[in-house]
C-alpha cells in the first residue's frame, strides 16, 4: 500500500484567516466523462475503464506541472479500517468507503487534493485547506480541473453546464463548504436561530458527523445550496461572506460569555482539560465534547501552551478506525475507550 | 393509468404526502399503497423529484409519459424513484420533464460558471461577445461614442472568428 495514513492532512494545520473559529475550507467539483453512464448504472468493466482513464490523466505532465504529483489508490486494495481512516480525515465520503464495485481515490501527498473516482459522479475533485481559504482552495481545484480537462472529456452542456448524476449538482458542479467551531453560539442557545436564518440565504448547514444529526463537538458545516445560474466566484464569495458573518457572531457570543460568565467559562475549560489529561476511559463522543471545550479555551487564550493543530490532530486520532490502525489490531469499543484515553493523555501532556 | 411505483398494476389510490409544507402526489395500486404506508418518510431525492408536481403550469394530473433516455434507457419514472440520472444524455432526452425540475431546485436554468476550454471554445467567445454588447449599450447611453466604436469593432472581430469556425459547437 502506497498510502501513508498516519501523516497529517494539510487541513489540520490550524493556521490561516479566521483560524480561531473556521477549521477548514473545502471545494468540491463534480465531473463526469462523456459517453459513459453515471456510476449508478455502470458495470464493472466500465468502472475499471473510468479508473484507468483517471489514472492515466493524473500522470500527464500538464497535471504534474499544475498541481504536483497525484497518486491513485483503488479502494479494493485497502482494508476496511484504512478506508475508514480516509473518511475520518474527511478525504473521502462514507459512500465511497462502503460502496460496492470498483472505486478509487486520488491523493496528493499533503492531502490538500483528493479525487473520489466512481462515487455518485465519475470524479469528485476536492481541495481541502485549513481555516477560511475558500478562494485558495478554488484556485487549486480550478487548476487541477483545467489540467485534467486536457486529458479527459468532461460531459458539459452550454445551457446546463457540467452534467452530474443528480440535478442538485448540475451547472458548476461546485460545492463549497467551511467547517466552523461554534461552541459559544451553542452555549448561548443562539445556534439554532442563527443557522436557520442561513438556510434563507442559500446556505445549507449540518452537523459535522452525519447528516441531520446533532453537531458533535459543536462543529458545523455550511455549504452552498445552488450550483446552477451563478458563477463559481459568486458562490464562493457568498459562502465566504456568510462564514465571516458566522465567525463574527460566534466571537460576539464568546465576548458575552467572558463578560457575564467568566468563571463558569474558565471552569468549564479547565475541567475539560483536567478530564482529558487524567481520564482512563473515554468514549469518542465524550472526547469530542471535551476537545470542543479545550479548543474554546485555546481559541480564547484561557489555556496557554496548546495549539489548534494539536486539537485538529486529536479530533482525527480519537476516531475508531484511526485508533485501531495505530494500535495495529481490531479492538472492542471498551478497548478503544481505554486506548483513546491513553493517547489523549499522552499527546496533551507532550 | 398504471401505478407510478410498480408500473404494472392499474393505479387506484391517490396518495398525497405533505413533507415540510411541500406536497407530493402519487398514483398507486392498492398493493403499493399498502407497502408504501410505513415508509412515507423523508428522502431527499424523492423530495426533490416531488417538487416537480408543484411547478406552475405543469399538468400534474396526467399519468407519467413513458419517455426514456435513448442512450442509457433510463425512464423519467426511474429517475423519479431514485433521484439519480443514468448518463449525461439523460439531460437531453428527458429535458421536457427535467428542465422544470432543475429550474425549481436551482432557481435558474442557465449555466453562468466555468466553461471547459476544449468543449466550450466557442461558448467562451460567445460569453465575451455578450459581455461586450452590454458594455457597448452602456457606452452609447453615456454618449462615449469613441470608446463604443472600439468595442463594436472588437465584437465584429469575435463574431467573424465564430463565423470562420462554422458557428457550431
Ligand atoms: Zn403498484
Ligand atoms: Zn441516459
UniProtKB/TrEMBL annotation, chain A:
| Domain (Phosphagen kinase C-terminal) ranges | 21-253
Motif mapping: RDXXRA motif of the pArg binding pocket involved in allosteric regulation: 336-341
Which residues lie in coiled coils? 239-266
What molecular function does GO assign, one term?
A: protein arginine kinase activity
Keyword Zinc listed: no
The residues that the entry says bind ATP are 24-28, 90, 124, 175-179, 206-211
Query: Known activity regulation?
Result: Appears to be allosterically activated by the binding of pArg-containing polypeptides to the pArg-binding pocket localized in the C-terminal domain of McsB.
Q: Which reaction does it catalyse?
A: L-arginyl-[protein] + ATP = N(omega)-phospho-L-arginyl-[protein] + ADP + H(+)
Which biological process annotations from GO are given for this protein?
phosphocreatine biosynthetic process
Q: What is its EC number?
A: 2.7.14.1
Q: What class of enzyme is it?
A: transferase
Keywords tagged on the record: Allosteric enzyme, ATP-binding, Coiled coil, Kinase, Nucleotide-binding, Transferase
| Gene Ontology terms: cellular component | extracellular space
What does this chain do? Catalyzes the specific phosphorylation of arginine residues in proteins.
Family classification: Belongs to the ATP:guanido phosphotransferase family.
PANTHER family, A to Z? ARGININE KINASE 1-RELATED, ARGININE OR CREATINE KINASE
Task: Tell me the protein's name.
Answer: Protein-arginine kinase
Instruction: Provide the species name.
Output: Neomoorella glycerini
TrEMBL record, chain B:
Q: Which domain of life is it from?
A: Bacteria
Q: Name one Pfam family in it.
A: UVR
Please provide the record's keywords in A-Z order: Coiled coil, Kinase, Transferase
Q: Which GO biological process annotations does it have? A: stress response to cadmium ion; stress response to copper ion
**Which ranges carry the UVR domain?**
126-161
UniProt key word Kinase: yes
Q: Name one GO molecular function term.
A: kinase activity
Q: Which positions are tagged coiled coil?
A: 122-161
Q: Which InterPro entries match?
A: UVR_dom, UVR_dom_sf, YacH
PANTHER family linked to this entry: PROTEIN-ARGININE KINASE ACTIVATOR PROTEIN
Q: What is this protein called?
A: Protein-arginine kinase activator protein
Species this chain originates from: Neomoorella glycerini
Q: What is the lineage of its organism?
A: Bacteria, Bacillati, Bacillota, Clostridia, Neomoorellales
Amino acid at each position: 500500500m502506497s498510502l501513508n495514513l498516519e501523516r497529517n492532512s494539510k487541513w489540520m494545520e490550524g493556521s490561516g484567516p479566521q483560524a480561531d473559529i473556521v477549521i477548514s475550507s473545502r471545494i468540491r467539483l463534480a465531473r463526469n466523462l462523456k459517453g459513459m453512464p453515471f456510476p449508478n448504472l455502470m458495470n464493472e468493466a466500465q468502472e475499471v475503464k473510468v479508473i484507468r482513464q483517471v489514472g492515466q490523466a493524473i500522470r500527464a505532465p500538464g497535471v504534474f506541472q499544475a498541481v504536483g504529483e497525484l497518486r491513485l489508490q483503488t479502494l479494493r486494495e485497502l482494508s476496511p479500517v484504512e478506508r475508514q481512516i480516509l473518511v475520518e480525515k474527511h478525504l473521502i465520503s462514507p459512500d465511497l468507503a462502503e460502496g460496492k464495485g470498483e472505486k478509487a481515490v486520488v491523493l496528493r501527498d499533503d492531502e490538500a487534493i483528493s479525487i473520489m473516482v466512481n462515487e455518485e459522479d465519475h470524479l469528485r475533485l476536492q481541495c481541502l485547506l485549513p481555516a477560511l481559504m475558500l478562494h485558495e482552495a478554488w484556485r487549486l481545484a480550478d487548476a487541477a480541473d483545467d489540467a485534467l480537462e486536457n486529458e479527459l472529456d468532461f460531459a458539459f452542456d452550454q445551457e446546463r453546464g457540467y452534467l452530474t448524476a443528480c440535478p442538485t449538482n448540475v451547472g458548476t458542479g461546485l460545492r463549497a463548504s467551511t467547517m466552523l467551531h461554534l461552541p459559544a453560539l451553542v452555549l448561548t442557545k443562539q445556534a439554532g436561530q442563527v443557522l436557520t436564518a442561513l438556510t434563507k440565504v442559500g446556505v445549507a448547514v449540518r452537523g459535522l458527523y452525519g447528516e441531520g444529526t446533532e453537531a458533535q463537538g459543536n462543529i458545523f458545516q455550511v455549504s452552498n445550496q445552488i450550483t446552477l445560474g451563478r458563477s463559481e466566484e459568486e458562490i464562493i464569495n457568498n459562502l465566504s461572506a456568510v462564514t465571516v458573518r458566522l465567525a463574527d457572531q460566534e466571537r460576539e457570543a464568546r465576548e458575552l460569555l467572558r463578560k457575564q460568565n467568566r468563571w463558569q467559562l474558565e471552569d468549564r475549560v479547565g475541567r475539560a482539560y483536567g478530564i482529558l489529561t487524567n481520564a482512563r476511559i473515554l468514549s469518542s463522543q465524550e472526547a469530542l465534547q471535551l476537545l470542543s471545550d479545550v479548543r474554546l479555551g485555546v481559541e480564547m487564550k484561557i489555556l496557554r501552551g496548546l495549539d489548534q493543530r494539536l486539537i485538529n490532530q486529536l479530533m482525527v486520532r480519537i476516531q475508531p478506525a484511526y485508533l485501531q490502525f495505530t494500535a495495529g489490531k481490531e479492538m472492542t469499543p471498551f478497548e478503544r475507550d481505554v486506548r483513546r484515553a491513553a493517547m489523549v493523555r499522552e499527546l496533551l501532556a507532550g | 393509468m398504471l401505478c407510478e411505483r410498480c408500473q404494472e398494476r392499474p393505479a387506484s389510490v391517490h396518495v398525497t404526502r405533505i413533507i415540510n409544507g411541500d406536497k407530493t402526489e402519487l398514483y398507486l395500486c392498492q398493493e403499493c399503497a399498502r407497502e408504501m404506508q410505513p415508509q412515507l418518510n423523508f428522502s431527499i431525492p424523492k423530495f426533490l423529484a416531488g417538487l416537480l408536481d408543484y411547478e406552475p403550469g405543469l399538468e400534474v394530473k396526467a399519468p407519467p409519459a413513458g419517455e426514456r433516455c435513448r442512450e442509457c434507457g433510463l425512464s423519467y419514472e426511474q429517475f423519479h424513484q431514485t433521484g439519480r440520472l443514468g448518463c449525461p444524455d439523460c439531460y437531453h432526452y428527458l429535458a421536457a420533464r427535467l428542465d422544470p425540475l432543475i429550474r425549481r431546485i436551482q432557481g435558474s436554468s442557465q449555466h453562468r460558471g466555468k466553461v471547459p476550454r476544449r468543449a466550450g471554445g466557442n461558448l467562451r467567445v460567445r460569453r465575451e461577445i455578450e459581455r461586450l454588447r452590454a458594455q457597448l449599450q452602456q457606452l452609447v447611453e453615456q454618449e462615449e461614442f469613441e470608446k463604443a466604436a472600439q468595442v463594436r469593432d472588437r465584437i465584429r472581430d469575435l463574431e467573424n472568428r465564430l463565423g470562420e469556425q462554422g458557428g457550431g459547437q
